[in-house]
Amino acid sequence: MLQFGKKAFVIAVSAVVVPLFILSQMKSLFKVQRGVVIEGIGSRLALDYVSMAVSMTTFPVVADILSELRLLNTELGRLTIAASMINDIGTSACLIIRTFVRRCLRMQLSFLEAAQKMTGYVILIVLLVFVFDPWARWIVSRTPKGGRVWEGHILMIMLAACAMGAFSDAFLLSHWEGPVYMGLLMPDGPPLGTALVDRANFVPTELLLPLIFLNAGRWIDFTMINHPTVFVGLVLYMFAGYAAKVLAVMVPAIYWNISVRNAAMLGLMLNFNGLGQIASYMTYADQHSVKAVRVVPITLTLFSLSIVFGHDSPLPQCIHYSSLVSKSMNANVLLLPQAYVAAILSCMTMTVISSTLVAIFYDPLNARHVMGCRTLQHLEPQAEFRLVASLLDEEPVALLLDLVEASRGNEQSPMCVYVLHLTEIMGRATSSLIAHKNKKGSIDTRQMDRLHRVFINYEQLREGMVVVQPFTAISPYKTMHHDICSLVIEKNVHLVIVPFPRKEPGANVEVHQAARSIIPNVLSQAPCSVGILVHHPITGFGQTVPLQYRYHIKILFWGGADDREALSFGARMARHVAVTAVVLRFLPAVDLEMDEDLLQDEDLFNEFKTEHAENERVAVEEVAVSDVEEAVAVIRYMEKDYDLVIVGRRQAWNSLLSEGMDDWSESPELGVVGDILASSEFANSSFSVLVVHQYV
């Protein structure tokens, strides 16, 4: 979140200050009786707390809704997360400090009680910083990579959280403070954060949350609306706050060169409401009319304790819920039943409106505005070639390294490789895209893993002929294509390679399923050509390109845009002095009517033969086939002593090739020929397959 810095801070502050100011000026619209009661609403202070609830943005709610909308790892989604986190921490801290000061000024706390609370805070901080934090990091260091945390550690952390809750209560602190501060210091992600989520996330999410929402809905009574004018006025009052929040966010966002549409979307995202606001309104409701409020402190106490173990974020979800409940109860802030109904309905309606508008109008990739042809076919031979190599695990590293070396072509053609390690988000709520090398070329190795170091070593071996930019994307599998496509757009990439492990014994089923979920989205949304690298599940982990490097490729060419892109990539590889290439062209047994597509095929194929006419490492073969059976037979019986077979995803004869093939196709995202080469018939072959899709 630090990458947004000042931008996120200013947006977060604006989202709180401006709505609070606007709503404070609108309070005079409501009639005050006897100086303390607002007619049809309740206590005069209740309106202040409703204004605070409208202005605050609860980070866990925003993260959850963005995840549902599949926007968590978009640029605007990350900015929203950063701003909501700052907003969340700031409003919660201000509310706690305000309540503490008010109680001290009204002599509700004696000097002894105040001293006891301060002592409790000091001891709590010492225990957490010097005992719990080192202990948690020691557990992480003792757990082998990919291993499971010992169950005894999980049990001891749970008992420690219970003890922290008891300690907080004994020193007159809120019951939630000890467990929540433990959650703040908990190392997120695997192994510890993930293990805690797996063990204890069920209770708060599947049991306690539904109970809270059930209680919130049970006491919505429309028959209690006895002042319709005041009811409508409160609804308009809250929506005025929401509108002010959107405008307050838009101004600084536009100043930082965010488009007007995206600035409005950012404002709507920061208006996502959920459990934080609902718990607040339940707390403010009249305790005699809305009896559900009596169970809220108990429920939220259990929730705050459980969420530490089920936390999936740096800020546990209960930090402000419990603070609002415990502090506001003491402040005797009350809402009348009709005001409670207005608050809940306004909160829900705003969330429905904002989430719907964001889902309809926010285009995270904005690929329609990408200019130019990002294809290999249209890339000049001496122009810089930009490639994104994405990896889900370490298995295809050696293959990708060989492929990158072959893609280098001749020494006059510069090349930049963006190595993107795709990591599933676990034990945390915030996605991130981490750049391990800054603009000056210095490398931050703290979060780099082994596969990044292999490519960095390769860059150093090539001495400036190849530039490597390592990245790590931490996000859910269902939205990983956003990270790939956003990097493609930002870096003006020509080709992105996505590994696709064959479904064979020993294969990682989770990685295979993840690849199958990512590839269709990349094919449809990436504004550049896409290469799907079909490989065997276990390929070894190469440290660098061997000194005696030799690479044998075969290109299958029928015709069409994808085959032309495959041939263009093969032509680039064939310029490498250590690459041997064979082009197998399939010709129809009967002449086809010449059209624009066939003319482009002929022109490109002739260009290839002319360029490599004197290249002894390049051979061209042609074979005539009349139906799909003959084409499949040629593929089955071709030589298998190649390192890589390159084929287009769609062929000019796609209708012929796909005839009768759709029923048994296992991987339609690979196309007809790609699916054949990835089938079990070629399980014993040593070559990998690169299925190329041209961006049009």
TrEMBL record:
GO terms for biological process: potassium ion transport; proton transmembrane transport; regulation of pH. It holds the Pfam family CHX17_C. One of its GO terms (cellular component) is membrane. This is Cation/H+ exchanger domain-containing protein. Keywords: Ion transport, Membrane, Potassium, Potassium transport, Transmembrane, Transmembrane helix, Transport. Residues 553-695 form the Cation/H(+) antiporter C-terminal domain. May function as sodium-coupled metabolite transporter across the chloroplast envelope. It is found in: Membrane; Plastid, Chloroplast envelope. The chain crosses the membrane at residues 7-26, 79-101, 121-140, 152-176, 229-258, 264-285, 292-311, 339-362. Residues 415-543 form the Cation/H(+) antiporter central domain. It comes from the Eukaryota. GO terms for molecular function: antiporter activity. It comes from Musa troglodytarum. It is a multi-pass membrane protein. The keyword Transmembrane applies. Residues 5-288 form the Cation/H+ exchanger transmembrane domain. Coiled coil: none annotated. Belongs to the monovalent cation:proton antiporter 2 (CPA2) transporter (TC 2.A.37) family. CHX (TC 2.A.37.4) subfamily.
